[in-house]
From TrEMBL:
<feature type="modified residue" description="N6-(pyridoxal phosphate)lysine">
    <location>
        <position position="192"/>
    </location>
</feature>
<keyword id="KW-0808">Transferase</keyword>
<dbReference type="GO" id="GO:0000271">
    <property type="term" value="P:polysaccharide biosynthetic process"/>
</dbReference>
<dbReference type="InterPro" id="IPR015421">
    <property type="entry name" value="PyrdxlP-dep_Trfase_major"/>
</dbReference>
<keyword id="KW-0663">Pyridoxal phosphate</keyword>
<protein>
    <submittedName>
        <fullName>DegT/DnrJ/EryC1/StrS family aminotransferase</fullName>
    </submittedName>
</protein>
<comment type="similarity">
    <text>Belongs to the DegT/DnrJ/EryC1 family.</text>
</comment>
<dbReference type="GO" id="GO:0030170">
    <property type="term" value="F:pyridoxal phosphate binding"/>
</dbReference>
<dbReference type="GO" id="GO:0008483">
    <property type="term" value="F:transaminase activity"/>
</dbReference>
<feature type="active site" description="Proton acceptor">
    <location>
        <position position="192"/>
    </location>
</feature>
<dbReference type="InterPro" id="IPR015422">
    <property type="entry name" value="PyrdxlP-dep_Trfase_small"/>
</dbReference>
<dbReference type="InterPro" id="IPR015424">
    <property type="entry name" value="PyrdxlP-dep_Trfase"/>
</dbReference>
<dbReference type="Pfam" id="PF01041">
    <property type="entry name" value="DegT_DnrJ_EryC1"/>
</dbReference>
<dbReference type="InterPro" id="IPR000653">
    <property type="entry name" value="DegT/StrS_aminotransferase"/>
</dbReference>
<keyword id="KW-0032">Aminotransferase</keyword>
Length: 385
């Protein structure tokens, strides 16, 4: 059996090596390292794939979140609501801009922001909601957009883990995550579903005016060369990374399908184990029609373990050369940097429970059946003792 990796970037590279190598060499030959044609072409191709009016590439996903908030003109003391159970980048940029982060609990089934908790957290100072499409599953955008309309709030989608995922509204219409709110941020960190070979990110919006504002912000606040109209930043996607992303974008659906196929096999193996709660997976995903269904793109395949010593399981799997990860081990409201006396433990019941129960299994585009079976068998072995 091939050695199991949490993420197998090398195996994936081997299949697209020729395209990637020649694209990188072309950039080097032309020396258009910054804002070269590859960046512009990638931007257009991603706009088309997502069906969104504007993609603004930038240096990484954290910058993308920050720039989106700067573009919306959020001001110190404005309150921004986001999920307690996510990667820290989201809350970090809110705090960095002097805005007030308001963390709320998540839903125990989807792991995404709890819309009832969002409603309870709204005050006259609330200006925006940041739903995170955690692990590749869309947040409840119908409900979030309805709350935003009612209270006149901005919605900034953190789509770093959700690229390629579809959100299906109650009326049956289908949109890509990251194209529903006022603005969205994504990351092309190597291990993300669409990853480059270094850092990269992008902002998406359908709002022409906001797109114009953001294009200036990423470039030192310049709209006309050497005229600085607003305080900006320097945040660029470099041409070599854009070339890698152009080579990978045509494979994104195929990559996401490979992830879903793996998730379906894992979930099938665990379905009769009462201690294991498998991730939400719709009927279409579970059937052989999953090729048509992109409701979950499985950036992570994350299980909840009931009545199980999760940390002993981690050790058991590690000893068997099966990598695994706890995403995330500490709720953001308990992190030293983000503690706030307004937070009460009873408002974070789900997150406090999830951090003890979750475990993510290896998930990437190159897992084969032998590996998947070995991983599933080992997990079940541990549970059954
Ligand atoms: C990866 C990630 C980010 C940050 O992206 P970087 O490119 O690493 O800066 C932000 N939010 C979430 C949910 C992420 O998973």
């Amino acid at each position: 059996m091939k050695k199991i990796q949490m993420v197998d970037l090398k195996g994936q590279y081997k299949n697209i090596k020729q395209q990637v190598d020649s694209s990188i060499m072309d950039v080097i030959e032309t020396t258009a390292f910054i804002n070269g044609p590859e960046v512009h072409e990638f931007q257009k191709e991603l706009e088309e794939y997502l069906n969104v009016k504007h993609v603004i590439p930038c240096a990484n996903g954290t910058d993308a979140l920050q720039i989106a908030m700067m573009g919306l003109g959020l001001k110190p003391e404005d309150e921004v609501i986001t999920a307690d159970f996510t990667f820290a980048a989201t809350v970090e940029v809110i705090a960095l801009l002097g805005l007030t982060p308001v963390l709320v609990d998540v839903d125990p089934v989807t792991f995404n922001i709890d819309v009832e908790a969002v409603k309870r957290a709204i005050t006259p100072k609330t200006k925006a909601i940041v739903p995170v499409h955690l692990f590749g599953l869309a947040s409840d955008m119908d409900a979030i957009m309805a709350i935003a309309r009612e209270h006149d709030l901005y919605v900034i989608e953190d789509n770093a883990q959700g690229i390629g995922a579809d959100y299906i509204s109650a009326d049956g219409s289908k949109q890509k995550t990251g194209t529903i709110g006022h603005v969205a941020a994504t990351s092309f960190f190597p291990s993300k579903n669409l990853g480059c070979y270094g850092d990269g990110g992008a902002i998406f919006t359908n709002d022409d005016e906001l797109a114009h504002t953001i294009r200036g912000i990423v470039n030192h606040g310049m709209y006309v060369r050497y005229h600085h109209d607003v305080v900006g930043v320097n945040s660029r996607l470099d041409s070599i990374q854009a070339a890698v992303l152009r080579a990978k974008l045509p494979h994104l659906d195929e990559y996401n399908n490979a992830r879903k196929k793996t998730a379906t096999k894992y979930s099938e193996a665990f379905k009769d184990i009462p201690e294991i709660v498998t991730p939400q997976n719709c009927e279409a995903c579970k059937s052989d029609k999953y090729e048509d269904c992109n409701c979950h793109v499985f950036h992570q395949y994350t299980l909840r373990f009931k009545n199980t010593d999760r940390d002993a399981l981690v050790k058991y799997l590690t000893d068997k050369d099966i990598p695994c990860g706890v995403y995330y081990p500490i709720p953001l409201h308990l992190q030293k940097a983000y503690r706030d006396e307004r937070y009460k433990e009873e408002d974070f019941v789900v997150t406090n429970q999830l951090v003890k129960e979750v475990l993510s299994l290896p998930m990437h585009t190159e897992l084969d059946d032998e590996q998947i079976n070995y991983i599933a068998k080992s997990v079940i072995e541990f549970i059954k003792g």
